[in-house]
Amino acid sequence: MTANAPVSDALPEGTVDVLVIGGGAAGLNGALMLARSRRSVVVIDSGDPRNAPAAAMHGFFVLDGTAPGELLARGREQVRQYGGRVVFGAVAAAEPAAPADDGDLRFAVTLSDGRVVTARRVLVATGLQDVLPEVPGLREHWGHSVVHCPYCHGWEVRDEPIGVLATGANSAHQALLFRQLSDDLIYFTGDTELDAGTRARFAARGIRVEDSPVVEVLSDDTGLTGVRLADGSFVARRVLAVATRMEARTDGLDGLQLPMEELPGDMGRRFASGLAGATEVPGVWVAGNATDLAAQVGAAAAAGALAGAHINALLVSADTDAALAAAQADAKP
Fold it and tell me: What pTM value is reported for the model?
């Protein structure tokens, strides 16, 4: 372990109240709420957050401009201040286990190194992965000069020559949002269709349209320089915006049999959830980008807090039911 490597806590023995799978904003804030309610809680953190390539997190007041790694490090320490534990590792399997003697739920989660932790409830906050178009040279600049969200990165790329790589129906809307940030915008249609009405709207806003497909993203020592088109021409750009396909991270979670939803327009795939992140699987909640693909850091953290409070409230009811049953049993002659 290097000097800068994050510290991993030991897995506790016995059953914990809540296991949180995912150490991002949603998972840590959910764990914080639970730990402050004196719940035993363990966060399993894979250590590869979605926003790791970004230099800073934006759109969250007070903390705007904070580096993602710094934000998460502070969050982990705050969870620990209240007795929570953060364990770095990958989940290999998660599934319901035999219930307790009083009928309370149990879940068994196995890590990739073979360690097992048992919990009464589970909060899934695994986040998502962005699936980029297969264009040579594109992924190398992801999170810097290849961006997706005007609210996350827009101010930092203002007034730059921006190209929008169309990937689906939502790309036209994305182009109009980035037009708010730069007068120099080119829309690369690629394999998508662009109707006459949208072309007219683009023309009215000064958005140029290029129909020849992008076949390569080019760069030099200064960063991204432009794109090569299928017709052989070069178009200079400093920034590319692309609407990715967003897919909830599901590794190791098949055993929970959580329902999934495919979103329209090939936007992505998420865990289905209801009130406060509750799922159709009793005892399992989801929060953050795993169920809300468009949530920024603030929204994901808020969802984690709401799920944590909901979990604690239902555990309070379960604890009270168990205490009442025990008291009634003791009172019997």
Answer: 0.93
In a shared domain, residues 122 and 154: no
Our count of domains for the chain comes to: 2
**How many residues can be counted in the chain?**
333
- Quote the DSSP letter at residue 74: H
**Predicted confidence (pLDDT) at residue 9 exceeds the cutoff of 60:** yes
**Owning domain of residue 176:** 133-242
| 48-82 residue pLDDT tens | 888 888 889 898 889 999 999 999 999 999 999 99
What is the Cα–Cα distance from 266 to 201, expressed in whole angstroms?
23
Which residues have CB under 8 Å from 104's CB, separation 6+?
A: 120, 318, 322
153 and 179 fall within a common domain: yes
Write the DSSP symbol of residue 275. G
| CATH code assigned at 98 | 3.50.50.60
User: Do 105 and 254 have their domain in common?
Assistant: yes
Question: Rounded CA gap, 242 and 154, in Å?
Answer: 13
d(CA 8, CA 86) in angstroms, rounded, equals: 6
Q: Which residue, among 328, 305, 318, 330, has the nearest Cα to 15 in the 3D structure?
A: 318
Q: How many helices (H) and strands (E) would you count in the chain? A: 6, 19
> Is residue 123 domain-shared with residue 141, that is, in the same domain?
no
Tokens of 314: 């239902």
Q: Which two tokens stand for residue 90?
A: 């990958």
Helix axes 25-36, 297-331, angle to 10 degrees: 30
**In a shared domain, residues 75 and 220:** no
Lookup: tokens for 33? 């709420």
List, in order, residues 6 or more apart from 82 with CB less than 8 Å away. 32, 35, 36
Which are the contacts of 111, defined by CB distance < 8 A and separation ≥ 6? 44, 87, 89, 90, 91, 92, 117
End-to-end CA gap in the chain? 60
Alpha helices by DSSP H, the chain: 25-36, 68-81, 150-153, 171-179, 196-204, 297-331
**DSSP 8-state symbol, 58:** -
Q: If you ran DSSP here, which 8-state letter would residue 269 be given?
A: E
